[in-house]
Design a protein that fits this description.
The chain contains 13 helices and 13 strands. It has 426 residues and is α/β, with parallel strands linked by helices. The structure holds pyridoxal-5'-phosphate (PLP). One of its GO terms (molecular function) is transaminase activity.
């Protein structure tokens, strides 16, 4: 194979005809493959089936603090779960709230409350301000952006670099604009690029000067234990860094067991300074008498301790690493020599991020859909669904069985070649 842009127009047209024949053949196969969301596969879900057995009717439901897990109470979660998840996030149990089944729900509610009441230290509810803006390192997680859109928070994209967001841009923007109240971050094995923020980036976040005194970092550490290798990326502790910098209240940390145990019936957690937690706990107690403590107890019994979580995650990695390896191998063999695409090679998380030539991602995704392969919508990884270079495609390798995954990537690579050649011929 040669680089596509090194071919004559005639050779390109011939190549296009060959690829189109292949495409029409695939179209006639009536494929129905869905690669659109990062979900665990059934084999991964099976790893946590023991959850159903760890709490039975003959059990002792008494918690560490003497209360009964079956009854009302404990608005910020059971002590056992605080202890377990505080180890996972490197914070103290006093700096945690253990919530319901979804960290996205906690993030949404945090910002909804900020709009209604402000956060600790706000002069006024954010919604009373003429404008509230958020920085959105991009490509990023589409559901973060959807929360901002819903709440009328204006989004400002910031480029992602190899070690985290473009901190020169971030520092400049937050230093000069009081309406910028926060930033979204997926600091470890980021969605979709698999980037882990460097220590220097974490320190710059902790120390940067912000014009808004009530600026918040939404630190979504969703993939903190989701390693794909035996040499996990390390992430500097942001809460410690913020505290050391004299900005202890700057960060809200989130995570969950959605991709450790069961999405939809996992346990979500939030960590922040004790002052922040106290402020939020009071608000939460008007919303609920308490979360699902039985589910929290089940999780503690199944996962036990940090070692238990790590062992469990190794079993996940054993199932999904071959899928990541397959995608990477196919991208390399189908596209490696063509000089039309680049992609991430993550050490963890749930995604591979693929960049096409500028102006091609939408066409590639549409063409794959017309052949029965549904990918994440092009543009979804940018605020307002608008990828300014129309080049980013998020690949989610975990859910499909291997055979379907291979077929889907074959179709993706084929469509990418066709669209790229068509663009070169224009
Ligand atoms: N945060 C990130 C970065 C994610 O990728 C996802 C799911 O894909 C979530 C949060 C959802 O978390 P939860 O299931 O805890 O709501």
């Amino acid at each position: 194979m040669t680089q596509l842009d090194g071919l004559t127009r005639e050779r390109m047209s011939e190549q296009l005809e060959l690829l189109m024949t292949k495409y029409r053949d695939i179209q006639s196969q009536g494929l129905q493959l869905d690669m659109s969301r990062g979900k665990p596969c059934a084999e991964q879900l099976d790893l946590s089936n023991g959850m159903m057995d760890v709490l039975t009717s003959r059990d002792n439901f008494k918690l560490q603090d003497g209360s009964d897990s079956r009854n009302y109470g404990g608005v910020d979660g059971i002590p056992e779960a605080k202890e377990l998840f505080s180890q996972m996030l490197g914070v103290s149990p006093k700096e945690m709230i253990i919530g319901g089944n979804s960290s996205l729900n906690m993030m949404h509610d945090t910002l909804a409350r900020a709009m209604l009441f402000g956060v600790l230290g706000s002069d006024v509810p954010w919604s009373k301000l003429p404008k509230v803006r958020f920085l959105c390192p991009s490509p990023g997680y589409d559901r973060h952006f959807a929360i901002c859109e819903l709440l009328g928070i204006e989004m400002i994209p910031v480029d992602m670099l190899q070690d985290g967001p473009d901190m020169d841009a971030v520092e400049h923007l937050v230093r000069n604009d009081e309406s910028i109240k926060g930033i979204w971050c997926v600091p470890k094995y980021s969605n979709p690029e698999g980037i882990t923020f460097s220590d220097a980036v974490v320190d710059r976040f902790a120390n940067m000067e912000t014009k808004a005194p009530d600026f918040r970092i939404m630190w979504d550490d969703a993939y903190t234990v989701h390693h794909l290798t035996d040499e996990p990326d390390g992430l500097k502790n942001i809460l410690e860094a913020c505290t050391a910098a004299g900005n202890p209240d700057r960060v809200f940390i989130y995570s969950s067991t959605s991709k450790v145990t069961f999405p939809g019936s996992g346990v979500a957690v939030m960590a922040a300074s004790e002052a922040n937690i106290g402020f939020i706990r009071k608000q939460l107690s008007a919303q609920t008498i308490g979360p699902d403590k039985q589910n929290q107890l089940r999780h503690v019994r199944l996962l036990r301790n940090m070692d238990g979580i790590e062992q469990h995650m190794k079993k996940h990695a054993a199932i999904i690493k071959p899928k990541f390896d397959t995608v990477l191998r196919m991208l390399e063999s189908e596209l490696g020599q063509l000089n039309i695409a680049s992609w991430s090679k993550p050490n963890g998380g749930y995604f591979i991020s693929l960049n096409t030539p500028d102006g091609c991602a939408k066409a590639v995704v549409n063409m794959a859909a017309a052949a029965g392969v549904v990918l994440t919508k092009a543009g979804a990884t940018y605020p307002y669904g608008n990828d300014p270079r129309d080049r980013n495609i998020r690949i989610a390798p975990t859910f499909p069985p291997m055979g379907e995954l291979e077929k889907a990537i074959e179709v993706l690579c084929l469509c990418l070649q066709i669209v790229s050649i068509k663009q070169l011929l224009q």
